[in-house]
Predict the 3D structure of the following.
Amino acid sequence: MALDSAKKEGLLKKLEQGVVEFEDDEVREAAQEWVDSGEDTYDAIFDGLVAGMEEVGRLFSAQEYFVPEMLMAADSLYIGLDILKPHMVARDSGVKGAVVIGTVQGDVHDIGKNIVKMMFDVAGFQVHDLGRDVALEDFLKKQLETNSDIVCLSAMMTTTMMGMPKVIEMIKEKNPKCKIMIGGAPITDDIVGKFGADATAKDASNALEEAVKMVVSLRDIQKEANAKS
């Protein structure tokens, strides 16, 4: 049974607050009710669970939450995702591409990376997820193996992000056409330029937009090359 607007807003708020306040049972109940209604679970994930995680990130930045709270919120997030994600309807981004994604060596924080990965999955991209604490050489190895259009590097700490320039240099040397997107708490537009990356994204939706632009750009370059040959 479809949800009316008031019920929908109530469930979204319940999902969001459930993540912020680590209320696993609340998240579980709200997520199941959403699935039972037959509504598109995309909204519940991004306007409910992810919105809650964004608030947790804000509280972490303000030093109101610390690592234990982040981990408890992540547990609540994943409880909701486990229920909602299997019912998610794929969306056509209008372009298809291949992406290699992972969290760089020394960094085990993968919440943001997993959300971005899910966006790519839903949009129809072919995603090769290397996981977390990934050896720098493995990004290059996987890119060459798959000939991916994009490599996404994630880091949540200033110490671990310092491995990014090495990965970018290695990939650009072997495949200058490959686009590199970097993300994570310490990443700024200035760092993107300094490291030689092509883009960053402030959230998962923005990451998807940037990825689509990159793939379209690569396709256009290829068409021009073919026309000249």
Notes: The longest helix spans residues 204-228.
